[in-house]
């Protein structure tokens, strides 16, 4: 099912995704820490604000560098939004559960949430958001090819 070339290509793509994610995470964590440490927001809404800011960075860089997608922005952006919204919900559930439910400090909680959401986002964007568009297949009768 998977050959060495396909696995190597997947590994390269995942490494590119991780690099882009680090840039997005820098924005996410900077906003999270700034909001919490200045007393402007509770850790859960601060994490969600950081997630949204990181998503803006992630979309642009992943579209261009990781997935090299030709899918039109009008289609890719709403797909990205759906995958990101699910990641947003996962972030909220994990952050609320760990900080409010278990009393974990916000940064370790965010690290755990990030670990889960990184894999969700990579797979969602690879398989759906930026995946190549299916090419319609013509039947023998329609195409005239036999």
TrEMBL record:
The chain crosses the membrane at residues 14-36, 48-65, 77-98, 104-123. Keywords: Membrane, Transmembrane, Transmembrane helix. The keyword Transmembrane helix applies. This is GtrA family protein. Belongs to the GtrA family. GO terms for cellular component: plasma membrane. The keyword Mitochondrion does not apply. It holds the Pfam family GtrA_DPMS_TM. It is found in: Membrane. It is a multi-pass membrane protein. InterPro entries: GtrA_CellWall_Glycosyl, GtrA_DPMS_TM. GO terms for biological process: polysaccharide biosynthetic process.
């Amino acid at each position: 099912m998977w050959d060495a070339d396909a696995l190597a290509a997947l590994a390269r793509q995942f490494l590119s995704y991780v690099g882009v994610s680090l840039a997005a995470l820098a924005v996410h964590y900077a906003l999270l820490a700034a909001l919490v440490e200045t007393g402007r927001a509770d850790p859960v809404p601060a994490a969600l604000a950081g997630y949204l800011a990181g998503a803006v960075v992630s979309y642009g860089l992943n579209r261009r560098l990781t997935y090299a997608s030709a899918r039109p922005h009008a289609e890719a952006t709403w797909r990205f939004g759906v995958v990101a919204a699910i990641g947003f919900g996962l972030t909220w559930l994990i952050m609320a559960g760990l900080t409010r439910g278990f009393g974990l400090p916000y940064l370790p909680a965010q690290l755990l949430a990030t670990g889960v959401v990184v894999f969700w986002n990579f797979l969602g964007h690879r398989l759906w958001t930026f995946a190549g568009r299916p090419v319609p297949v013509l039947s023998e009768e329609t195409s005239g090819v036999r």
